[in-house]
Amino acid sequence: MKKTVSLIVHGHRKLSEKTRETLALLQGETMLQIKIYKTKGPGDASEIAIKASKHSDVIVAVGGDGTCNEVINGLMIKPKDHIIFGVIPNGTGNDFVRNFPPFDPYTFVVGIIENSVKRIDLGKIQFGKATRYFLNVADIGFGAKVIDTLNKQRSSGVSGKFSYNLAILRSFISYRKPELKIRSEHFEFEGKSLMIAFSNGTTFGSGLQIFPGAKLDSGKLGLTIIGDVSLGEYAKNLGNLRKGRRIDHPQVKYYEFEKLHVHTTLDDLYVETDGEIAGRSSITVEVIPSAIQIIA
Roughly how many angstroms between the first and final C-alpha of the chain, as a whole number? Predict the structure, then answer.
């Protein structure tokens, strides 16, 4: 019996050569029934995933981290345990797939046919009654500020890697560190913070390893607290983050957790999940162990 594979493709991004090769291999495989859906705007990938989950065995996000995040949030509306998730990286940063060996089109297609999968955890964030899931990394503070700035630049026609670097520079200039309170079963933190990152995977920000050693199937999330650190000190450590080294600084702390609460009195403090602005203000973050199956 043929497997039904639904491909949810970011409709406004040019396909890379490797992505086109992967699509051709999939469409040429007689054991698979391929359905292709293209997004037209924000939120489309989630809506398509909800509908595609009714008749699919495998759902593949073809795009960057934002597309992956939208697809997963669609699938988690009514989770179906049999559905396998996959990623064909075709974005700018592609940080989530850095948790796996380098992408190979042939290996990916064989993985679908032979059901080569593993179970991974998801992160879950609650903003009051609203819920958002993340595959890789979420953060509150400076990282989310960069994403918000980046989105505003894109709406005015500035895009690509230059736009990301420009967003970092602009955010450096305008960002003010908020006072945050963090509570978990095993630790507490209170004070000014440049950034708080919650890690299911290791890497965000187009190659920065914010929590080196994070495992997608550990049953825990990593927490990186970058406290009252100057923007200059943070910038000096970008090289360490790219090399997967933890920052050695008294204001930088690393923990693992299953559930925690972050409280802020600010109502304009954004939270981002996998590079997408997800909500604002006080949140509860927890891990959902073995939440999904993924082509490995």
Answer: 22
Distance in angstroms (rounded) separating the CA atoms of residues 241 and 222? 15
* Same domain, yes or no: 100 and 155: no
pLDDT tens, position by position, 4-21 = 999 999 999 999 999 999
Which H or E element spans position 26? Answer: helix 17-27
Cα–Cα distance measured from residue 137 to residue 271, given in angstroms and rounded to the nearest whole number: 11
Q: Which domain holds residue 8?
A: 3-116
SS3 at position 130? strand
CATH code, 93: 3.40.50.10330
| Integer Cα distance of 38 and 45 in angstroms | 8
- 131 secondary structure, DSSP code: E
Question: Taking Cα atoms as reference points, which of 45, 82, 41 lies closest to residue 61?
Answer: 45
7 CB burial (10 A radius; 0-12, 13-18, 19+): buried
pLDDT in tens, 107-135: 999 999 999 999 999 999 998 788 999 99
pLDDT, mean of residues 35-50: 96
Phi, psi of 207 (to 5 degrees): 110, 5
Q: How far apart are CA 48 and CA 289, in angstroms?
A: 25
| pTM of this structure | 0.92
Tell me the HSE value of 120 on the side-chain side, using a 13 A CA sphere: 27
Q: What is the DSSP letter of 232?
A: H
Give yes or no: residues 26 and 101 share one domain. Answer: yes
pLDDT surpassing 90 at residue 139: yes
The DSSP 8-state label assigned to residue 205 in this structure reads T
> Same domain for 65 and 187?
no
